[in-house]
Every structure is written in structure tokens, then in C-alpha cells.
Amino acid sequence: MNILVVGGGGREHALVMKINESEKADKIFCVPGNGGISRYAECISDIKATDIDGVVETAKKVNADLVVVAPDDPLVLGMVDELNKQGFATFGPNKDAAIIEGSKVFSKNLMKKYNIPTAEYETFSSAIDAVNYLKERNEYPIVIKADGLALGKGVIIAQDFKEAEDAVKSIMEDKIFGASGSKIVIEEFLTGPEVSVLCFTDGTTIKPMISSMDHKRALDGDQGLNTGGMGTIAPNPYYTDAIAKECMTTIFKPTIDAMNNENRTFKGCLYFGLMLTPKGPKVIEYNCRFGDPETQVVLPLLDTDIVDIMMAIYNDKLDSINIRWKNETAACVVMASGGYPKKYETGKLIEGLDERGQVSGAFVYHAGTKFEDKSFYTAGGRVLNVTATGKNLKEALSQSYNCVKKIKFENSHCRTDIGARALAAEED
Ligand code: AMP
Ligand code: GLY
């Protein structure tokens, strides 16, 4: 099969490398891809991941038998609908279903209507009403979210009235997140360990993957700014079998049923961002796609052909597939450009990688690199995602940090405590 992957980060590199393991995959293409991906797939780098016409044309040109749309924005824009119209098999939800991530107002109202546990909330389309509500409620911290996609940055946790009022004004009046801030959600602040659960679903059957844990803050000890994710581990030790069972009956299945009921059948990877609160698991957010960098720890543990799974989902036959997982643990450490998520420099030579952009003992997924004259250069904020597996968390972490040490570029930055809290909890 000819398989086209849309996207160009570490998540897409993990997808491409997993697809590359499949006996079904003859040729892999990627739009736009990146330096590391170019060692495993033919990259069409002059087309953007959001360019629907460009991707459809590419799918025709390369005779794609399957198109995997990985990032949120092309899914929310309806890339899958257009590809299907032109007769291509796809992996990813259509536009009507992708709204589960594209609009927080939609997803919160869905959860309320179908009794799916989530933080209590109100929605607003006027800043004055929102500020009046804050005055009335007067409970802090409080969480303020822009309705639409905001590159994972549309959430502000306000500690007092002043911060909350500023957040409302900057989202709704100054439009710091653009049009995605014309409506907002204000919700109750929840506490507890966070768990990411990615699920394969064809709209009828839902099969959770191995759970994982992201580390969103830039600095050790969960300090510093929010980022796209600085590291992940899988499985998530807080997510016990009993909790998994509860989530299936109170959250996963009800969500799939709710989407069907709304005529928005979801097919692809549905990502549940959960918080294990003292009152039980609650949904923090839905994503309509594989998480990044969760995918970089989940897929290395997958022991079933991913192309078979994707085609089964496309053909509404997920129930016929037995998905197996390796009985191992994975840890991913993100190597970022110094300064990320604020200003950073690019174009730095990366030393220590072999000709495929790898080091021995790890999967090195490239998030932001360029390949030129047989060398790799930094090309983004998050540069490399170094993933290792082991028989337990301790082993996976030490192996991935050992591999990080083999790679050098000027001003590189990584957290030194990925998985540390989980490891301490596990050893307790
Ligand atoms: P999101 O972009 O929705 O994933 O939110 C980003 C992060 O904000 C989450 O990973 C949580 O750490 C935090 N967050 C979001 N909603 C809440 C909430 N209701 N209570 C506490 N923390 C939250
Ligand atoms: N890691 C969080 C996300 O993919 O949105």
C-alpha cells in the first residue's frame, strides 16, 4: 500500500516509523514531514498540513491507498471529508466529529447533555456577562478556556479576580488566541493526577490504547510556562485497571454513543484528557487525534500492525481486530531549543545522530529538524523526542536519559525529571 501521512512533528514521525514496521506498507509519504521523517518517508515539504487541496492533489499523485491525517487543524477544517469525497481511504474523524476538539463549548455541552463527568462550567459570548459571573461566583483558582483551537495554549488558570478578569478581556477583547476566543468556557478548577487515554474507535467499537502521562510545563518540578509537552511516560501508573473499567462505562462508551446520537460518528483516534479527582475520573479535554508527545510513548508499545487497525476502522470492523500491547514501559524526553516556549534560535547543527537520525537504544522521533548535506539541524522549539522502552519505568527513564546524553546541539534544553513523580508514587 502507498500511505500518506499528514503532519510534520514528533507524533507524525512516530506514526511513520510504526507504519514502516507494517508488512502492508510499500511506500510512505509525508506532507510536509521534517528532517527526521525524510529518512523514513518521502516528504512533500512545500505543502502545508492545512492545505486541503494540496493534500488531495498529493494523494492523487502518489496513488495513496490510505491517508492518515494527524494534526487537529486539518481535521477540524474537514480534510478527511474532502479526501473521502475523492474516494480515498482515511484515518481521522470528519469535520462534524472533529468539533469535539474544535469547540470547547460544543464538547462541554455534549458532556452535560449526556451526563459525562467533567468540571462544572458556564459558557459566555460576552465579556461583560463573563466578568459579572466571575464576581458572582468568586471562587479561586478558576479555569478560563477559549472556545476554539489555540495550539494547546487556550487555557488560563486564574488565581484571583484580577487575573480572571484580565484573562477574559485578553481572550475576548484583545483576541490573544484570535477568533477561537469569541466564546469562552469558565469552569471549576479540578485537582488530581492527569492521565491521557488515546482510543481507537470506528464509532461503534472503542479500544483504549495504553495510558500515558504528559509533562506540560517547561521546567523541572512542573515550573515555568506551559508547552506543547516536554516528555511522556506510558503506561500511567495512576491509571489502575479499576479506573480503566470505570472510565469505559462512565466516559469512553458514553462519548461514542453521544456522538452517534448527535449524528457526528467519530472514527479515528479519540484522545481523552482525564483528571483523577477525589470524586472520580473527569474529562478535562477531548482531542480528535493522537496526542503529541503521548503517541511517542504509546506506539512503541503497540504489538499489532497499525495499518490493519487503521483499515479496520475505515471499514467499520474494529471489533474484528485483537490489539496487542508489549508488556513494557516507555519514556520520552523532549529535547528543546533553549528559550522554548518563548523565543529560541534554530539552524543549530545536531551532533550524535546516525544517518537515519537515530541513536542506538532509543527511538529518536524528530519534532523540529531539517536534513541538509547529510546533517541534521534544529528547526523548531521542540527538536527531538527521545523514547526508550524498558521492563519498568525506572529502566525506560534511565535508558532514555542515557540516549539524550549522546545527542548535542547548542543551547539544548530538556527537563531532568520526566516520570520522576510517577516513579516515586510507584515506589511508595
Ligand atoms: P487543555 O488545553 O484543555 O489540555 O488544558 C491544559 C491544562 O490545563 C490541562 O492539562 C490541565 O493541567 C489544566 N486544566 C484544564 N482544565 C482544568 C480544570 N478544570 N481544572 C484544573 N486544571 C485544568
Ligand atoms: N499532549 C497534549 C496534546 O496532544 O494535546
Give a concise summary.
By secondary structure, this protein is α+β, with helices and mostly antiparallel strands. It contains 13 helices and 24 strands. Bound molecules: adenosine monophosphate (AMP) and glycine.
What does this structure look like?
The protein is of the alpha+beta class. It is 30% helix and 27% strand. The protein has 13 helices and 24 strands. The chain has helices at residues 10-20, 52-61, 72-77, 79-85, 95-102, 104-113, 127-137, 161-172, 241-261, 295-298, 306-314, 393-405, 420-427; strands at residues 2-7, 27-32, 42-43, 66-69, 90-91, 121-124, 142-146, 155-158, 184-188, 194-201, 206-208, 213-214, 217-219, 223-226, 231-234, 268-277, 280-287, 329-337, 349-350, 363-366, 369-372, 375-378, 382-390, 412-413. The strands form 6 sheets. Strands 12, 15, 18, 20, 23 and 24 form a 6-stranded antiparallel beta sheet that branches. Strands 3-2-1-4-5 form a 5-stranded parallel beta sheet, with helices on both faces. Strands 6-9-7-8 form a 4-stranded antiparallel beta sheet, with helices on both faces. A hairpin with a 2-residue loop joins strand 16 (268-277) and strand 17. Helix 7 (127-137) runs antiparallel to helix 8 (161-172). It is globular and about 60 Å long. The mean pLDDT is 96. Adenosine monophosphate binds next to strand 9 and strand 17.
